[in-house]
Design a protein that fits this description.
single chain, 176 residues, alpha/beta, Rossmann fold, 5-stranded parallel β-sheet, 7 helices, 43% helix, globular
């Protein structure tokens, strides 16, 4: 485990972003466990109607995403107000989505899990019991507006999870 005394006065919110199937949840959970931070998955913030829509193969539109984004923004604000470090896995596909989540908080660290369509499609085809069908992957890539490389750490989603987590800790999280 990483020494957490340093974070008592500075809260950090690490947002692991990318298309569905890029490994956000697995990486986020592993990162949070390594740092002994709280973890939240954006999927848990979707209202039931969003999950139903996606499970029927219908992509979400920006109006569908608004309650979801507002709920995550509130969770981020609460973590910051309480001084709790947090890892949040969230697609955050568009710049506008990231802006909704970010406000003017300096505490946010963006980590973009970047992978090819073929890699992500192969992963999604292997998933079972997930509400997001592989048929919606193209809509995710079509919607994706990659973050500014100056504002986010780009990590190759094809790397092993442990290598991704170590890269994040070394390059995005201020650990002494």
């Amino acid at each position: 485990m990483v020494n957490q005394e340093r974070f008592a006065e500075n809260t950090t919110i690490a947002i692991v972003m990318g298309v569905s199937g890029s490994g956000k949840t697995t990486v986020g959970q592993t990162l949070a466990a390594q740092l002994n931070w709280q973890f939240k998955d954006a999927d848990d913030f979707h209202p039931p109607e969003n999950r139903e829509k996606m499970s029927r193969g219908i992509p979400l539109n920006d109006a569908d995403r608004q309650p979801w984004l507002r709920a995550m923004r509130q969770a981020i604000a609460t973590a910051i107000a309480q001084g709790q470090n947090l890892v949040l896995s969230c697609s955050a596909l568009k710049a506008a989505h990231r802006q909704t989540l970010a406000d003017d908080w300096d505490a946010l660290k963006w980590i973009y899990l970047q992978g090819s369509f073929e890699l992500i499609q192969a992963r999604m085809n292997q998933r079972q019991n997930h509400f997001m069908p592989a048929e919606l992957l193209q809509s995710q890539f079509d919607t994706l507006e990659p973050p500014d490389p100056q504002a986010a750490l780009y990590v190759d989603a094809a790397l092993p999870v442990t290598a991704i987590v170590q890269e994040i800790i070394a390059n995005a999280i201020d650990i002494p």
